[in-house]
Design brief:
With 348 residues, the chain is an alpha/beta fold. The chain folds into 2 domains: 139 residues, 2-Layer Sandwich (Nucleotidyltransferase, domain 5), CATH 3.30.420.40; 167 residues, Nucleotidyltransferase, domain 5. The chain contains 11 helices and 12 strands. The strands form 3 sheets. A 5-stranded mixed β-sheet has the order 3-2-1-4-5, sandwiched between helices. It has a 5-stranded mixed β-sheet with strand order 10-9-8-11-12, sandwiched between helices. It has a two-stranded antiparallel ribbon with strand order 6-7.
């Protein structure tokens, strides 16, 4: 099967070409510089950039893969969740392409694709699901933080999710309080590597709660009050690095602690992590140490597949079509609030 996929759920415009489980091309156009001026993603600007960039990105992916549009056998796109106007650009473009080429179209759940991204590996990258045993998966990004029990390749159960701010959102808002540029996550990661993670004591919200839910708004508020009461620290580079390290340690303690607790409770032997925040070096290191100590297998998404990308959309779509999942209607609407594990909304 030869398939073209689009991903436009937030602020990355991406197109990928997949053939028989192998990724032939994955092109991503990031909007980070555009939104940095505003300190966060502006939905209307994101949609306009998708409109401007999607066709050139798709052409680049096809050229990189050495594929002509007439050779394509299926088209896929992210259907949800995500920013409504951003999703609309990718979904409608994919449906138009499928209609013009008279090939099947599939609308893919963004989080489900993230679940599969830790299984994309190799050169060239392939989707190897041969060891897709039951496991606990952490999806952690700027918009989402959730734990999922993956019972089989097509059965998922959300164990818990954030009740307020996502982990990535906490990183970015903390960075803004510290005067760091957007997106602050990678900057905090870099500065924290030179700081003392026990210099300041910040709360670990819901770490010892019986549920698998997350909450990071209290941590963000704690940092805000701390900076308000100690403004002189922001003029000291060493203290800023210590602040970054201490906040990062609090976030990572919660993510690792709750993930391992869920894995032990469910008796799984494998843990995976994906999403943009899973690029964080301390999170990757601490998950590795914790899984080794508990004799668990750890699968981390490769950094190039942690953030939003069309490769995970295309590889999952191909897998679904080969499993016999029916092609979607070309009247299918976007699903900005589509929950993982639930049936997709029906066309109007």
């Amino acid at each position: 099967m030869l398939l073209l996929a689009f991903e436009t759920s937030c602020d990355e415009t991406s197109a990928a070409v997949v053939r028989d489980g192998t990724l032939l091309a994955n092109v991503v156009s990031s909007q980070v510089r555009l939104h940095a001026e505003y300190g966060g993603v502006v939905p209307e600007l994101a949609a306009r950039e998708h409109l401007r960039n999607l066709l050139p990105v798709a052409r680049a992916a096809l050229q990189q893969a050495g594929v002509r549009p007439a050779e394509l056998q299926a088209i896929a796109a992210t259907r949800g969740p995500g920013l409504p106007t951003a999703l609309l650009v990718g979904l409608r473009s994919a449906q138009a392409a499928a209609f013009a080429l008279r090939v099947p179209f599939l609308g893919i759940h963004h989080h489900e694709a993230h679940l599969f991204s830790p299984w994309i590996a190799g050169q060239p990258p392939r989707a190897d699901f041969t060891d897709f045993a039951p496991h606990v998966s952490l999806i952690v990004s700027g918009g989402h933080t959730m734990l999922v029990h993956v019972e089989s390749e097509s059965r998922y159960r959300v164990l818990g999710s954030t009740v307020d701010d996502a982990a990535g959102e906490c990183f970015d808002k903390t960075g803004k309080l510290l005067g760091l540029p957007y997106p602050a996550g990678p900057v905090i990661d870099r500065l924290a590597s030179e700081g003392n993670p026990v210099a300041f004591d910040f709360p670990r919200p819901l770490l010892h709660d019986a549920s698998d839910d997350f909450s990071f708004s209290g941590l963000k508020t704690s940092v805000r009050y701390f900076v308000r009461d100690h403004p002189e620290l922001l003029a000291d580079g060493r203290q800023v690095r210590d602040l970054c390290a201490s906040v990062q340690r609090a976030i990572v303690d919660v993510l690792v602690g709750k993930t391992l607790k869920a894995a032990r409770r469910l008796g799984v032997r494998c843990v995976t992590a994906s999403g943009g925040v899973s690029c964080n070096r301390e999170l990757r290191r601490r998950l590795g140490e914790a899984c080794t100590a508990s004799r668990l297998t750890l699968r981390l998404a490769d950094p190039q597949f942690c953030t939003d990308n069309a490769s995970m959309i295309g590889l999952l779509a191909e897998r679904q079509l080969l499993r016999g999942v029916k092609a979607a209607s070309l009247d299918e609407e976007i699903a900005p609030q589509w929950s993982l594990g639930e049936a997709p909304p029906s066309p109007r």
